[in-house]
């Protein structure tokens, strides 16, 4: 294994794996830290953790265990993948994990770049934009677990880390890889360890990737991985895929704006069932009810808890954030297990935490990366007769669920 990656959630990990696979690397996504060695032909290993929203100490500990395993597989470079919307609270977990990885790797110039222009995320003047809005004006300000209320990444990361945060500005990035490397050195000389790097176009990300060739640690969204395969002598290719027929079901726990629109669109043509958080918490709506409904429904049935910010707020006020999100995640995990036991072969999930709960609940050790469904979302194969698509909350076209069913089924 050459490139070792640690993803702080499961959709984010598949997003990164997708970029590396398209860049021609042989990639495997692991569910947590594997207990044995990786297969020798894996060039990039992505250890998917569910560490984005857990307490800081747990996120750090899990990330260091993942790091040790990746180093033991021979990795010469480590990539820490977080969300392109920098999902985190003022306490972490991005900063503390970066601090711990940097200390273990003796990394003194650590790039932090969540930009992913293909999906509208750009970093300019140290600020993160979602399309034409500052992050704090986008739907992310209402995220159920990590509301993003400050678009200045230097300031937000500064709250989370022990280190001083530097910045490589856009004009330097536009000047190319050598200029970026020189500025990383200059930032280090100023005492800055973590360095926000501006990027608004794919060519910026490729230049950053080139400048990062000899760095032990890179952090960011999947965009900044665009330039990495070339550093390992890999060139773009389309991953192999064997089509999968059979029953397809969609589960959505994401409350992000894009997912809510996709849910509304999907309901027009396919059977749907709304999951009401209070009913789940009080035991009136069970995994068995939902799975039985989905297994009998035609088309691509969708069970969803996706709801507007006011609904989420009132549930969280009544039952607490932790209890309500846990109850929904456990439900989805149980539903997924019943669906797969009932013969579902194509499972679509929306939401990072939701997808993590499902994949961990299904005890899927590793995932093979297939072709891209929409930017940042690959087809995944878990076994001979189970395929998945783990959709990040804000990714995917309006007809994502239908489209994903088609790609898994080999019809696109
Ligand atoms: N109706 C609901 N009420 C309260 N919490 C919810 C509801 N639906 C989903 N959630 C919780 O909101 C969180 C959504 O996060 P996630 O799955 O990561 O989506 P995204 O990828 O859009 O961030 C999960 O923890 C989920 O359990
Ligand atoms: O970088 C991204 O935006 C995604 O890869 C990702 O991490 C998304 O997470 P969720 O929105 O929580 O699914």
UniProtKB/TrEMBL annotation:
GO terms for molecular function: ATP binding; kinase activity. Its EC number is 2.7.1.217. Coiled coil: none annotated. Residues 249-401 form the Four-carbon acid sugar kinase nucleotide binding domain. Residues 3-227 form the Four-carbon acid sugar kinase N-terminal domain. Pfam families: NBD_C (PF17042), SBD_N (PF07005). Keywords: ATP-binding, Carbohydrate metabolism, Kinase, Nucleotide-binding, Transferase. It catalyses: 3-dehydro-D-erythronate + ATP = 3-dehydro-4-O-phospho-D-erythronate + ADP + H(+); 3-dehydro-L-erythronate + ATP = 3-dehydro-4-O-phospho-L-erythronate + ADP + H(+). SUPFAM superfamilies: YgbK-like. Catalyzes the ATP-dependent phosphorylation of 3-oxo-tetronate to 3-oxo-tetronate 4-phosphate. NCBIfam families: OxoTetrKin. This is 3-oxo-tetronate kinase. It comes from Nereida ignava. The lineage of its organism: Bacteria, Pseudomonadati, Pseudomonadota, Alphaproteobacteria, Rhodobacterales.
